């Protein structure tokens, strides 16, 4: 026992604050009468990839803007690297990939990267940045002559060219085909391996599932759920039954323990937390049910469940029931 | 993981040289516009074209006591530097603001003034090109023979006098939308040019327009340039410079107000 103590204090005893790259403390953000963020408490931990998920208008873009110093909080305190997010010193450690309507079209890819690299004290070489973004062949091509996916990769290059410690990626794989998306995911994983911290917003729940250490679900300016992808999925302990049945959607929806029913061409998809119960009734009501598949609810279902108000009430009432059962 | 970003440690960050950043920013702003014919060709070709049509083709005449080919260099020179400055600053700023590019720049470590310095330097370079092109045309085909000192003074006056129009362009850029910008600019540019005597020489303009001209910066700049070749209306140069300085301050105030309005809208 004493030899363990002789190794020195455990790292976990270090104060929590040391590991926060960015921190929101009770932040409010109002745009006139609109409450974009309310009493928002959020941290970004060093070395993690945290994904912000939420429907449109949830406040994800507001969070990113505040973290980049493009907007100021109406109340509360916010810090990035322990300091003002808007200062140039902070920006030299940050890279951002934002959604843009227009990028100067007559400049070449290499020139864009050269210019942005100049802003940083210790940038990567242009060749290295282009390699990371898969743009080596396109160095001399003008931005206006690129395809949509290639343009996205240039924006990614501009985010990483300064070798920043903290990266903001706002919907980074929009417009990319499957192969390009997976290549970009690999590059993001490489960045994490090099010790970078990444804040990702995405609508592709598959992407959050694949990349995030931690998912933060936002709706209407507040955090409604937070956890690893597995934890978020387990929040709605639901299953999905997919089958081909002659039963009408409305009839299936009325079955007990059925949460939701959708049609996907000729298949019917049933969401339930009691699949065995539903299946027994299904077999009784339709002797010719076929193409049966039972699977776990994915992140998509968990997300939809979390962000719909009725589901919130249902979950909280179910929680109350399970608590009282203990 | 131990060596991952040291968060709270105050590193002595070596910041890149501000001059290097401004120089690169200006270099790429220039290349960007050079490769955009709607700007680069229009800026140089239109004043040259007017000079050729009204100066060379119309034959040897006098305007006042100065040959036409000499008179038209200061007046189309003013027209040219005005266009180069207004379209160089206003259109780019309106577009960058409206379509999100300015936000990307603001999120980066680029110091804010580098953006504006680059636009102004780029405009100055194009102003110089326009003025030199007009002078070359006049010397080569218009039989213009001005002493070297006068030529230099004329060129310097026109280029330096373009700065108030850079300020005007920035003011406009903060209030124009990307698609409307060119039309918005022309709405000011063309009437101002006419009423300042840049097309029809000042002395031929109706009296009520001549009286309006006093509030127009283009009138003051063209008078300063015409004075250099001895064709001005005879007012003291200091009056014109003061008017230009006052106009520049007003435009900078409007630009500042536009900047504040943007900050409020974005948060």
Average of per-residue pLDDT values of chain A: 85
Secondary-structure arrangement, i.e. CATH architecture of the largest domain in chain A: 3-Layer(aba) Sandwich
- In angstroms, what separates the terminal alpha carbons of chain A? 38 Å
Largest interface: A-B, 54 and 37 residues
Number of helices of chain B: 11
Beta-strand content estimate of chain A: 25-35%
Helix content of chain B: over 70%
Oligomeric state of this protein? heterodimer
Which structural class best describes the helix and strand composition of chain A?
alpha/beta
CA-atom Rg of chain B in angstroms = 21 Å
Residue runs with pLDDT of under 50 for 5 or more positions of chain B: 1-12
Major sheet strand order of chain B: 1-2
SS-based structural class of chain B?
A: mainly alpha
Mean pLDDT of chain B: 90
Element pattern of chain B in H and E: HHEEHHHHHHHHH
Note the gap between the termini of chain B.
Answer: 36 Å
Describe, in plain words, how this protein is organized in 3D:
The complex is a heterodimer of chains A (326) and B (267). Chain A is of the alpha/beta class. Chain A folds into 2 domains: 217 residues, Rossmann fold; 93 residues, Alpha-Beta Plaits. In chain A, 37% of the residues lie in helices and 27% in strands. Chain A is built from 13 helices and 13 strands. Chain A has a 6-stranded mixed beta sheet, sandwiched between helices. Chain A has a 4-stranded antiparallel beta sheet with strand order 11-12-10-13. Chain A has a 3-stranded antiparallel beta sheet with strand order 2-1-4, with helices on one face. In chain A, helix 9 packs across helix 12 and helix 12 crosses helix 13. Chain A is globular and about 70 Å long. The two termini of chain A are 38 Å apart. A two-stranded antiparallel sheet of chain B has the order 1-2. The N terminus of chain B is likely disordered. The longest helix of chain B is centred in the N-terminal third of the chain and has 31 residues. Chain B is 72% helix and 1% strand. Chain B starts with 17 loop residues before the first helix and ends with a helix. Chain B is mostly helical. Chain B contains 11 helices and 2 strands; from the N terminus they run H-H-E-E-H-H-H-H-H-H-H-H-H. Classes of the chains: A alpha/beta (326), B mainly alpha (267). At the A-B interface, strand 1, helix 2, helix 3 and helix 4 of A face helix 1, helix 3 and helix 4 of B.
């Amino acid at each position: 026992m004493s030899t363990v103590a002789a190794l020195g204090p455990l790292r976990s005893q270090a104060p929590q604050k040391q590991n926060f790259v960015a921190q929101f403390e009770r932040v409010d953000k109002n745009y006139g009468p609109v409450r974009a963020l309310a009493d928002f408490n959020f941290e970004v931990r060093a070395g993690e990839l945290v994904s912000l998920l939420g429907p449109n208008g949830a406040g994800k873009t507001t969070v990113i803007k505040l973290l980049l110093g493009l907007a100021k909080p109406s109340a509360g305190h916010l810090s990035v690297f322990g300091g003002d997010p808007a200062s140039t010193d902070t920006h030299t450690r940050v890279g951002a990939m934002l959604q843009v309507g227009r990028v100067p079209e007559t400049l070449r890819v290499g020139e864009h990267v050269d210019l942005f690299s100049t802003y940083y004290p210790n940038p990567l070489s242009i060749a290295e940045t282009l390699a990371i973004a898969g743009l080596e062949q396109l160095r001399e091509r003008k931005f206006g002559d690129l395809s949509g996916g290639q343009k996205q990769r240039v924006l990614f290059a501009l985010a990483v060219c300064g070798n920043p410690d903290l990266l903001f990626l706002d919907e980074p794989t929009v417009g990319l085909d499957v192969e390009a998306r997976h290549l970009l995911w690999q590059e993001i994983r490489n960045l994490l391996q090099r010790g970078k911290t990444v804040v990702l917003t995405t609508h592709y729940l598959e992407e959050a599932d694949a990349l995030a250490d931690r998912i933060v679900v936002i709706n209407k300016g507040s955090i409604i759920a937070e956890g690893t992808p597995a934890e978020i999925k387990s929040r709605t302990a639901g299953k999905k039954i997919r089958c081909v049945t002659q039963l009408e959607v409305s009839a299936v929806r009325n079955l007990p323990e059925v949460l939701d029913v959708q049609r996907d061409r000729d298949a019917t998809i049933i969401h339930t937390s009691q699949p065995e119960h539903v299946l027994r009734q299904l077999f009784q009501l339709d002797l010719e049910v076929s193409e049966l598949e039972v699977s776990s609810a994915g992140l998509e279902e968990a997300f939809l469940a979390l962000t719909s108000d009725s589901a919130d009430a249902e979950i909280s009432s179910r929680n109350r029931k399970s608590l009282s059962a203990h | 993981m131990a060596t991952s970003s040291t968060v709270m440690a105050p590193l002595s960050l070596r910041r890149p040289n501000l001059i290097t950043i401004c120089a690169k920013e200006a270099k790429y702003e220039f290349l960007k516009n050079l490769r955009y014919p709607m700007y680069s060709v229009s800026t140089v070709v239109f004043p040259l074209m007017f000079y050729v049509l009204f100066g060379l083709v119309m034959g040897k005449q006098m305007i006042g006591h100065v040959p036409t080919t000499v008179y038209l260099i200061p007046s189309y020179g003013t027209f040219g530097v005005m266009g180069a400055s207004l379209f160089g600053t206003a259109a780019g700023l309106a577009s960058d603001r409206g379509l999100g590019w300015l936000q990307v720049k603001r999120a980066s470590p680029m110091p804010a003034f580098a953006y504006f310095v680059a636009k102004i330097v780029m405009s100055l370079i194009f102003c110089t090109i326009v003025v030199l092109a007009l002078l070359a045309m006049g010397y080569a085909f218009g039989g213009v023979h001005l002493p070297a000192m006068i030529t230099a003074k004329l060129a310097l006056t026109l280029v330096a006098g373009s700065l108030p129009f850079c300020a005007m362009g920035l003011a406009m850029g903060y209030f124009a939308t990307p698609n409307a910008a060119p039309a918005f600019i022309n709405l000011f540019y063309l009437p101002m040019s006419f009423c300042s005597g840049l097309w029809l020489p000042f002395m031929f303009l109706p009296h009520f327009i001549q009286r309006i001209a006093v509030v127009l910066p283009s009138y003051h700049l063209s008078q300063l340039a015409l004075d250099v070749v001895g064709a001005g209306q005879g007012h003291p140069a200091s009056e014109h410079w003061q008017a230009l300085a006052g106009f520049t301050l007003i435009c900078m105030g409007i630009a500042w107000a536009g900047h504040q309005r943007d900050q409020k809208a974005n948060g």
